[in-house]
Amino acid sequence: MKKLLLLFIATAFILAACSSSPTVTTLPETAEPRTGSVEATSQPIHTEQVQPTETAEPTQEPAVQPTVNQASASGLTVFKIIPGESQLQYEVGEVFINDSNRFAVAIGVTPQVEGEISIDRTAPQNSTIGTITADVSQFKSDNGRRDNAIRGRFLESERFPTVTFVPTQIEGLPDTYQDGQEFPLKISGDLTIRDVTRPVSFDATVGLDGDQLSGQATTIILMSDFQFGPISVAGILKTEDEAKITLTFIARP
Question: How far apart are CA 177 and CA 155, in angstroms?
């Protein structure tokens, strides 16, 4: 009995000692990061990639460039064709049936020519020719009846008073310029007479002397290509199909 009592007391003492011992808290394994591990804690960490701000390196504003006239910057000078000092001329062969088939050349001239030509003295190959126009309703020859017939029936310049030439290519521009020297050129482009446009090429000679640009350009066209010839007046006359067109001009800045 005495032994059982002692055993009971010993057991109670051990239980009391265990209940009074301090509580030990076990830290999670991730409390101290492992070498080579991406995660530092047991919970996933969402990282955000930090983008460099625009203020990290100051942005330099582009320098403001002054506006410069293109013609002035490249050395181009614009010359304007002077009406009255320039002219467009046609020449057409004609046969007078009522005068023993006498052959003659009809010549008509209009001084109403306009256009612009840009010349670069420092680099002549940069030179250009703008659209050239002529008022063909002002054509005058040595015969008023011919002029009236051309205006009303054939060229119909009363309805289509303006002939237009739009250059597309210039061949023969020199590499260097010398004042007073003339240059032979070939100028190709689109010629519009009435409402018909055809490609043509002019053989030209152009010279620049101081502030005056002058030149002459010639081509041969077929009137039938522009649907107004050859001209025929029964019992009176008939013309050739070919017409020689000559532009003579004076231009100044």
Answer: 40
For residue 194, the 8-state DSSP code is T
Q: How far apart are CA 193 and CA 107, in angstroms?
A: 18
Which sign, positive or negative, has the C-alpha torsion 231, 237, 238, 239?
Answer: negative
Taking only the tens place, the pLDDT of each residue in 113-132 is 999 999 999 999 999 999 99
pLDDT tens sequence across 181-233: 999 999 999 999 999 999 999 999 999 999 999 999 999 999 999 999 999 98
Task: Give dist(CA 80, CA 74) in Å, integer.
Answer: 18
CATH number for the region 74-252 comes to 2.40.128.110
End-to-end CA distance of the chain: 142
Q: CA 154 to CA 62: how far, in whole Å?
A: 62
Q: Is the previous residue joined to 230 through a cis bond, with omega within 30 degrees of 0?
A: yes
Domain boundaries, the chain: 74-252
Contact status, residue 86 vs residue 113, Cβ threshold 8 Å: yes
Are 79 and 117 spatial neighbours (Cβ–Cβ below 8 Å)?
Answer: yes
Contacts 24+ apart (CB under 8 A), 103-107: 106/141, 106/143, 106/146, 106/239, 107/141, 107/142
The DSSP secondary structure of 48-96, one letter per residue, reads -PPPPPGGGSPPPPPPPPPP--HHHHHTEEEEEE-BTTBEEEEEEEEEE
**200-to-118, 166, 239 alpha-carbon distances in Å:** 21, 10, 21
